[in-house]
Amino acid sequence: MKRVGVLVSGSGSNLQAILDAQKAESLGAEVRLVISNIAGVRALDRARDAGVSAEVISHRDFSSREEFDARLIARLKEHGIELVVLAGFMRLLTPKFIESFQIINIHPALLPSFPGVHAAKQALDHGAKITGCTVHFVDSGCDTGPIIAQRAVPILDGDDEETLGARIQAEEHRLLPAVISAIAHGRVRLVSGSRRVEGSV
Ligand code: GAR
């Protein structure tokens, strides 16, 4: 089974969706390690409650991005990780990290619209009527990698960042485990020499 490492920075509700899918035996992959760059976050408790190794590697303990990433790479390799999932991990990764693993990220918007932080607020501020979530392979840009799958979410009159964010997250929790399963089973693939991902989730 494909060995998965999950990087988190916060609540870990997407991590929980992955762990629930693993428990229900619908993931087709095994979460071996969870790493948070922030101490004390709920994601760490969720991992430990599911019996998965969880540790904190704080970016503040390193003098450069390269040194921080080198530690992440070393720990992930020690656990034999083949697929890295960024589930609310709020740090940019160095080229060295990106070439070391297959990496996917979940983002709360229909990329390429509204990259970066506060994606739901960006959608509201633009008066968009539809937003959603995207899972994509990670490249050296911020939320720019090849798109694997997206789900649309309506923006309703009276929505604020919280109500819209919750509606997007409900969709994320279905999409992210489904993408991991599709990758684990070889149902999606990046067309070589292009940014297109073929196959269905
Ligand atoms: C998720 O909504 C994810 O899409 C977002 O952070 C949230 C983490 O929630 N990621 C980004 O905005 C990345 N640009 P969680 O910790 O409850 O899974």
Task: Write out key terms for the chains shown.
single chain; 201 residues; alpha/beta; Rossmann fold; seven-stranded mixed β-sheet; two-stranded antiparallel sheet; 35% helix; binds glycinamide ribonucleotide
Architecture overview:
The structure is a single chain. The chain has six helices and nine strands. The protein is of the alpha/beta class. The protein has a seven-stranded mixed beta sheet with strand order 3-2-1-4-5-6-7. The protein has a two-stranded antiparallel sheet with strand order 8-9. Strand 1, helix 1 and strand 2 form a beta-alpha-beta unit. The model has no long low-confidence stretch (mean pLDDT 97). The structure holds glycinamide ribonucleotide (GAR). Glycinamide ribonucleotide (GAR) binds next to helix 1, strand 5 and helix 6.
Report the sheet with the most strands, covering strand number, pairing sense and barrel closure. Answer: 7 strands, mixed
Write down the oligomeric state. single chain
Rg estimate, integer Å? 16 Å
Structurally, the number of domains stands at 1
Q: What is the CATH topology assignment? A: Rossmann fold
Mean pLDDT: 97
Sum up the overall morphology in one term.
globular
- CATH class group: Alpha Beta
Measured by DSSP, the beta-strand proportion falls in 25-35%
How many strand units? Answer: 9
Bound molecules: glycinamide ribonucleotide
Number of H/I helices? 6
Which secondary-structure class do the elements indicate?
alpha/beta
Low-pLDDT segments, ≥5 res: none
Name of the CATH superfamily: Formyl transferase, N-terminal domain
Distance between the termini: 18 Å
The strands making up the biggest β-sheet line up spatially as 3-2-1-4-5-6-7
Q: Level of helix content?
A: 25-40%
State the order of secondary-structure elements, H for helix, E for strand.
Answer: EHEHEHEHEHEEHEE
